[in-house]
Protein backbone atom coordinates (compact mmCIF):
# COMPACT_ATOMS: atom_id res chain seq x y z
CA UNK A 1 0.00 0.00 0.00
CA UNK A 2 1.42 3.37 -1.01
CA UNK A 3 1.84 5.84 1.83
CA UNK A 4 2.28 9.56 1.31
CA UNK A 5 2.75 12.27 3.93
CA UNK A 6 -0.33 14.52 4.21
CA UNK A 7 1.52 17.58 5.54
CA UNK A 8 1.42 20.50 3.13
CA UNK A 9 4.74 20.93 1.32
CA UNK A 10 6.03 17.46 2.33
CA UNK A 11 6.70 14.94 -0.45
CA UNK A 12 7.83 11.95 1.62
CA UNK A 13 6.50 8.57 0.47
CA UNK A 14 7.24 4.95 1.31
CA UNK A 15 9.69 4.96 -1.61
CA UNK A 16 12.23 7.08 0.28
CA UNK A 17 11.12 6.20 3.84
CA UNK A 18 10.23 2.98 5.60
CA UNK A 19 6.58 2.10 6.15
CA UNK A 20 7.17 2.21 9.92
CA UNK A 21 7.99 5.92 9.65
CA UNK A 22 4.39 6.79 8.65
CA UNK A 23 1.59 7.12 11.19
CA UNK A 24 -2.15 6.90 10.52
CA UNK A 25 -4.58 9.68 11.43
CA UNK A 26 -6.39 9.03 14.76
CA UNK A 27 -10.01 7.88 14.87
CA UNK A 28 -10.89 10.26 17.72
CA UNK A 29 -12.86 13.27 16.43
CA UNK A 30 -11.15 16.01 18.47
CA UNK A 31 -7.63 14.66 18.00
CA UNK A 32 -8.22 14.10 14.27
CA UNK A 33 -9.49 17.68 14.02
CA UNK A 34 -6.21 18.93 15.53
CA UNK A 35 -4.21 16.84 13.04
CA UNK A 36 -6.27 18.18 10.13
CA UNK A 37 -5.76 21.78 11.29
CA UNK A 38 -2.00 21.35 11.60
CA UNK A 39 -1.48 19.60 8.25
CA UNK A 40 -3.11 22.59 6.41
CA UNK A 41 -4.14 20.53 3.35
CA UNK A 42 -7.44 21.78 1.79
CA UNK A 43 -8.54 18.39 0.42
CA UNK A 44 -8.13 16.63 3.79
CA UNK A 45 -9.98 19.46 5.53
CA UNK A 46 -12.88 19.18 3.06
CA UNK A 47 -13.05 15.40 3.57
CA UNK A 48 -13.11 15.90 7.34
CA UNK A 49 -15.91 18.49 7.16
CA UNK A 50 -18.17 16.20 5.08
CA UNK A 51 -17.26 12.77 6.53
CA UNK A 52 -15.64 13.36 9.93
CA UNK A 53 -12.66 11.27 11.00
CA UNK A 54 -13.62 8.24 8.86
CA UNK A 55 -12.18 9.46 5.49
CA UNK A 56 -8.98 10.60 7.24
CA UNK A 57 -8.13 7.08 8.44
CA UNK A 58 -6.61 6.42 5.01
CA UNK A 59 -4.18 9.36 5.43
CA UNK A 60 -0.71 9.22 6.95
CA UNK A 61 1.88 11.58 8.47
CA UNK A 62 5.63 10.97 8.38
CA UNK A 63 7.86 11.05 11.46
CA UNK A 64 9.58 14.31 10.45
CA UNK A 65 6.64 16.32 11.79
CA UNK A 66 6.76 14.94 15.34
CA UNK A 67 9.10 15.89 18.18
CA UNK A 68 10.99 13.43 20.35
CA UNK A 69 8.42 13.88 23.13
CA UNK A 70 5.65 12.51 20.88
CA UNK A 71 7.19 9.04 20.45
CA UNK A 72 6.91 6.17 22.90
CA UNK A 73 10.63 5.51 22.41
CA UNK A 74 12.54 8.10 20.29
CA UNK A 75 15.28 5.57 19.52
CA UNK A 76 12.76 3.04 18.16
CA UNK A 77 10.18 4.87 16.06
CA UNK A 78 8.42 1.68 15.00
CA UNK A 79 6.92 1.39 18.51
CA UNK A 80 4.54 4.20 17.58
CA UNK A 81 3.32 7.51 18.98
CA UNK A 82 1.84 8.51 22.29
CA UNK A 83 -1.99 8.84 22.39
CA UNK A 84 -1.78 12.65 22.67
CA UNK A 85 0.81 13.16 19.91
CA UNK A 86 0.12 16.06 17.53
CA UNK A 87 2.09 16.76 14.32
CA UNK A 88 3.64 20.13 13.47
CA UNK A 89 5.04 21.64 10.31
CA UNK A 90 8.78 21.45 11.11
CA UNK A 91 9.30 20.92 14.87
CA UNK A 92 12.75 21.51 16.34
CA UNK A 93 14.33 18.52 18.01
CA UNK A 94 15.47 18.70 21.61
CA UNK A 95 19.21 18.80 20.82
CA UNK A 96 18.68 21.52 18.20
CA UNK A 97 16.86 23.73 20.72
CA UNK A 98 19.70 23.23 23.20
CA UNK A 99 22.39 24.07 20.65
CA UNK A 100 20.64 27.27 19.65
CA UNK A 101 20.25 28.62 23.19
CA UNK A 102 23.48 27.27 24.70
CA UNK A 103 26.32 29.77 25.43
CA UNK A 104 29.68 28.30 26.43
CA UNK A 105 30.96 31.08 28.68
CA UNK A 106 31.26 34.86 28.83
CA UNK A 107 34.31 36.75 27.59
CA UNK A 108 35.51 39.81 29.47
CA UNK A 109 38.62 41.97 29.55
CA UNK A 110 40.59 41.62 32.79
CA UNK A 111 43.40 44.05 31.91
CA UNK A 112 43.27 47.81 32.39
CA UNK A 113 39.74 47.89 33.88
CA UNK A 114 40.32 51.23 35.58
CA UNK A 115 41.69 52.93 32.47
CA UNK A 116 38.70 51.84 30.35
CA UNK A 117 36.24 53.08 33.00
CA UNK A 118 37.95 56.47 33.08
CA UNK A 119 37.78 56.80 29.30
CA UNK A 120 34.07 55.90 29.23
CA UNK A 121 33.23 58.36 32.03
CA UNK A 122 35.06 61.21 30.28
CA UNK A 123 33.30 60.55 26.96
CA UNK A 124 29.83 60.41 28.55
CA UNK A 125 30.41 63.65 30.46
CA UNK A 126 31.50 65.48 27.30
CA UNK A 127 28.46 64.25 25.38
CA UNK A 128 26.08 65.27 28.19
CA UNK A 129 27.57 68.75 28.36
CA UNK A 130 27.29 69.14 24.58
CA UNK A 131 23.62 68.10 24.55
CA UNK A 132 22.83 70.35 27.50
CA UNK A 133 24.34 73.48 25.93
CA UNK A 134 23.00 73.09 22.35
CA UNK A 135 19.55 72.30 20.94
CA UNK A 136 18.53 72.12 17.30
CA UNK A 137 15.72 74.60 16.47
CA UNK A 138 14.29 72.18 13.90
CA UNK A 139 13.68 69.57 16.59
CA UNK A 140 11.92 71.86 19.06
CA UNK A 141 8.22 71.05 19.45
CA UNK A 142 5.21 73.07 20.49
CA UNK A 143 2.97 72.01 23.42
CA UNK A 144 0.31 70.65 21.01
CA UNK A 145 2.86 68.47 19.24
CA UNK A 146 4.12 67.21 22.59
CA UNK A 147 0.57 66.24 23.57
CA UNK A 148 0.10 64.38 20.29
CA UNK A 149 3.39 62.55 20.77
CA UNK A 150 2.47 61.52 24.31
CA UNK A 151 -0.94 60.27 23.10
CA UNK A 152 0.64 58.26 20.30
CA UNK A 153 3.18 56.83 22.74
CA UNK A 154 0.42 55.84 25.15
CA UNK A 155 -1.52 54.27 22.30
CA UNK A 156 1.49 52.23 21.18
CA UNK A 157 2.13 51.22 24.77
CA UNK A 158 -1.48 50.06 25.08
CA UNK A 159 -1.21 48.02 21.89
CA UNK A 160 2.06 46.47 23.06
CA UNK A 161 0.80 45.59 26.54
CA UNK A 162 1.34 42.20 28.13
CA UNK A 163 -2.42 41.46 28.13
CA UNK A 164 -3.48 38.03 26.91
CA UNK A 165 -4.81 38.24 23.29
CA UNK A 166 -7.70 35.89 24.08
CA UNK A 167 -8.71 38.02 27.07
CA UNK A 168 -8.56 41.16 24.94
CA UNK A 169 -10.73 39.51 22.27
CA UNK A 170 -13.27 38.50 24.92
CA UNK A 171 -13.42 42.06 26.22
CA UNK A 172 -13.89 43.42 22.69
CA UNK A 173 -16.65 40.88 21.99
CA UNK A 174 -18.43 41.77 25.24
CA UNK A 175 -18.15 45.48 24.47
CA UNK A 176 -19.54 44.94 20.95
CA UNK A 177 -22.42 42.81 22.30
CA UNK A 178 -23.40 45.54 24.78
CA UNK A 179 -23.21 48.16 22.06
CA UNK A 180 -25.44 46.07 19.76
CA UNK A 181 -28.04 45.64 22.51
CA UNK A 182 -28.48 49.40 22.79
CA UNK A 183 -28.65 50.21 19.07
CA UNK A 184 -31.88 50.99 17.23
CA UNK A 185 -33.26 49.26 14.11
CA UNK A 186 -31.82 51.94 11.81
CA UNK A 187 -28.39 51.63 13.39
CA UNK A 188 -28.60 47.82 13.09
CA UNK A 189 -29.49 47.99 9.38
CA UNK A 190 -26.72 50.53 8.74
CA UNK A 191 -24.16 48.37 10.58
CA UNK A 192 -25.15 45.22 8.67
CA UNK A 193 -25.00 47.10 5.37
CA UNK A 194 -21.49 48.32 6.19
CA UNK A 195 -20.42 44.80 7.18
CA UNK A 196 -21.80 43.33 3.93
CA UNK A 197 -20.09 46.01 1.83
CA UNK A 198 -16.79 45.53 3.64
CA UNK A 199 -16.91 41.73 3.32
CA UNK A 200 -17.91 41.89 -0.36
CA UNK A 201 -15.01 44.24 -1.12
CA UNK A 202 -12.58 42.01 0.77
CA UNK A 203 -13.80 38.85 -1.02
CA UNK A 204 -13.57 40.46 -4.44
CA UNK A 205 -9.87 41.24 -3.89
CA UNK A 206 -8.80 37.94 -2.29
CA UNK A 207 -6.77 35.25 -4.03
CA UNK A 208 -7.68 31.58 -4.46
CA UNK A 209 -5.56 30.53 -1.46
CA UNK A 210 -7.13 33.19 0.75
CA UNK A 211 -10.60 32.07 -0.39
CA UNK A 212 -9.85 28.43 0.49
CA UNK A 213 -8.42 29.45 3.86
CA UNK A 214 -11.50 31.59 4.63
CA UNK A 215 -13.86 28.73 3.73
CA UNK A 216 -11.85 26.32 5.88
CA UNK A 217 -12.10 28.67 8.86
CA UNK A 218 -15.85 29.13 8.31
CA UNK A 219 -16.42 25.36 8.06
CA UNK A 220 -14.35 24.72 11.20
CA UNK A 221 -16.19 27.45 13.10
CA UNK A 222 -19.57 26.03 12.02
CA UNK A 223 -18.56 22.47 13.00
CA UNK A 224 -17.42 23.61 16.45
CA UNK A 225 -20.59 25.65 16.97
CA UNK A 226 -22.85 22.75 15.92
CA UNK A 227 -21.02 20.39 18.26
CA UNK A 228 -21.81 22.59 21.28
CA UNK A 229 -25.41 23.57 20.45
CA UNK A 230 -28.52 22.28 22.27
CA UNK A 231 -31.59 20.58 20.77
CA UNK A 232 -33.59 23.83 20.65
CA UNK A 233 -30.75 25.68 18.96
CA UNK A 234 -30.40 22.82 16.46
CA UNK A 235 -34.12 22.99 15.57
CA UNK A 236 -33.97 26.78 15.13
CA UNK A 237 -30.87 26.49 12.94
CA UNK A 238 -32.48 23.83 10.75
CA UNK A 239 -35.62 25.95 10.28
CA UNK A 240 -33.47 28.92 9.25
CA UNK A 241 -31.45 26.72 6.88
CA UNK A 242 -34.66 25.40 5.27
CA UNK A 243 -36.04 28.91 4.74
CA UNK A 244 -32.70 30.13 3.35
CA UNK A 245 -32.35 27.15 0.99
CA UNK A 246 -35.95 27.50 -0.21
CA UNK A 247 -35.35 31.16 -1.07
CA UNK A 248 -32.07 30.33 -2.82
CA UNK A 249 -33.66 27.52 -4.84
CA UNK A 250 -36.47 29.82 -5.87
CA UNK A 251 -34.02 32.31 -7.41
CA UNK A 252 -31.51 29.85 -8.94
CA UNK A 253 -31.13 29.12 -12.66
CA UNK A 254 -31.42 25.73 -14.39
CA UNK A 255 -27.64 25.26 -14.51
CA UNK A 256 -27.31 26.05 -10.79
CA UNK A 257 -30.16 23.64 -10.03
CA UNK A 258 -28.48 20.82 -11.97
CA UNK A 259 -25.14 21.43 -10.22
CA UNK A 260 -26.84 21.45 -6.80
CA UNK A 261 -28.72 18.20 -7.49
CA UNK A 262 -25.54 16.51 -8.73
CA UNK A 263 -23.60 17.55 -5.60
CA UNK A 264 -26.46 16.37 -3.37
CA UNK A 265 -26.54 12.99 -5.14
CA UNK A 266 -22.77 12.51 -4.76
CA UNK A 267 -22.90 13.44 -1.07
CA UNK A 268 -25.88 11.13 -0.44
CA UNK A 269 -24.20 8.23 -2.27
CA UNK A 270 -21.05 8.64 -0.17
CA UNK A 271 -23.10 8.80 3.04
CA UNK A 272 -25.13 5.69 2.10
CA UNK A 273 -21.99 3.73 1.28
CA UNK A 274 -20.72 4.28 4.83
CA UNK A 275 -23.92 3.45 6.74
CA UNK A 276 -24.64 0.21 8.62
CA UNK A 277 -27.68 -2.09 8.00
CA UNK A 278 -29.49 -0.60 11.03
CA UNK A 279 -28.91 2.93 9.77
CA UNK A 280 -30.08 1.89 6.29
CA UNK A 281 -33.31 0.42 7.66
CA UNK A 282 -33.87 3.51 9.82
CA UNK A 283 -33.35 5.80 6.82
CA UNK A 284 -35.85 3.82 4.74
CA UNK A 285 -38.44 4.04 7.52
CA UNK A 286 -37.99 7.81 7.69
CA UNK A 287 -38.33 8.02 3.90
CA UNK A 288 -41.58 6.02 4.00
CA UNK A 289 -42.99 8.21 6.78
CA UNK A 290 -41.97 11.36 4.92
CA UNK A 291 -43.58 10.10 1.70
CA UNK A 292 -46.79 9.13 3.53
CA UNK A 293 -46.99 12.57 5.15
CA UNK A 294 -46.40 14.27 1.81
CA UNK A 295 -49.08 12.17 0.09
CA UNK A 296 -51.57 12.92 2.85
CA UNK A 297 -51.18 16.69 2.33
CA UNK A 298 -51.18 16.78 -1.48
CA UNK A 299 -54.00 18.14 -3.64
CA UNK A 300 -55.87 16.09 -6.31
CA UNK A 301 -53.85 17.77 -9.07
CA UNK A 302 -50.57 16.93 -7.33
CA UNK A 303 -51.76 13.34 -6.82
CA UNK A 304 -52.60 12.93 -10.52
CA UNK A 305 -49.22 14.36 -11.48
CA UNK A 306 -47.40 11.99 -9.09
CA UNK A 307 -49.29 8.91 -10.30
CA UNK A 308 -48.59 9.84 -13.90
CA UNK A 309 -44.87 10.18 -13.17
CA UNK A 310 -44.90 6.81 -11.35
CA UNK A 311 -46.60 5.10 -14.33
CA UNK A 312 -44.09 6.60 -16.77
CA UNK A 313 -41.18 5.53 -14.57
CA UNK A 314 -42.55 1.98 -14.25
CA UNK A 315 -43.14 1.71 -18.01
CA UNK A 316 -39.60 2.93 -18.70
CA UNK A 317 -38.20 0.39 -16.25
CA UNK A 318 -40.22 -2.45 -17.80
CA UNK A 319 -39.03 -1.54 -21.29
CA UNK A 320 -35.39 -1.66 -20.18
CA UNK A 321 -35.51 -4.87 -18.09
CA UNK A 322 -36.45 -7.95 -20.13
CA UNK A 323 -36.78 -11.28 -18.33
CA UNK A 324 -36.10 -14.51 -20.27
CA UNK A 325 -38.65 -17.33 -19.83
CA UNK A 326 -37.40 -19.89 -17.27
CA UNK A 327 -36.52 -23.40 -18.32
CA UNK A 328 -37.70 -26.61 -16.70
CA UNK A 329 -34.66 -26.92 -14.41
CA UNK A 330 -34.38 -23.31 -13.28
CA UNK A 331 -37.47 -23.01 -11.02
CA UNK A 332 -36.36 -25.85 -8.73
CA UNK A 333 -32.86 -24.43 -8.35
CA UNK A 334 -34.11 -20.91 -7.79
CA UNK A 335 -36.60 -22.01 -5.16
CA UNK A 336 -33.91 -23.83 -3.16
CA UNK A 337 -31.37 -20.98 -3.43
CA UNK A 338 -33.74 -18.12 -2.65
CA UNK A 339 -35.50 -19.52 0.44
CA UNK A 340 -32.99 -18.05 3.00
CA UNK A 341 -33.02 -14.73 1.16
CA UNK A 342 -36.82 -14.67 1.22
CA UNK A 343 -36.88 -15.41 4.94
CA UNK A 344 -34.35 -12.66 5.73
CA UNK A 345 -36.20 -10.13 3.56
CA UNK A 346 -39.48 -11.12 5.21
CA UNK A 347 -37.98 -10.56 8.66
CA UNK A 348 -36.66 -7.16 7.63
CA UNK A 349 -40.04 -6.11 6.20
CA UNK A 350 -41.81 -7.29 9.37
CA UNK A 351 -39.42 -5.24 11.50
CA UNK A 352 -39.94 -2.19 9.30
CA UNK A 353 -43.74 -2.55 9.51
CA UNK A 354 -43.59 -2.85 13.31
CA UNK A 355 -41.38 0.24 13.59
CA UNK A 356 -43.70 2.22 11.31
CA UNK A 357 -46.75 1.22 13.35
CA UNK A 358 -45.02 2.15 16.62
CA UNK A 359 -43.92 5.47 15.12
CA UNK A 360 -47.47 6.29 13.99
CA UNK A 361 -49.02 5.26 17.32
CA UNK A 362 -46.50 7.28 19.32
Automatic annotation (TrEMBL):
Residues 133-145 have a biased composition (Low complexity). The keyword Coiled coil applies. One of its GO terms (cellular component) is nucleoplasm. Keywords: Cell cycle, Coiled coil, DNA-binding, Metal-binding, Nucleus, Transcription, Transcription regulation, Zinc, Zinc-finger. Its main location: nucleus. It is found in: Nucleus, Nucleoplasm. Residues 165-189, 203-213, 225-252, 272-287, 295-313, 336-345 have a biased composition (Basic and acidic residues). This is THAP-type domain-containing protein.
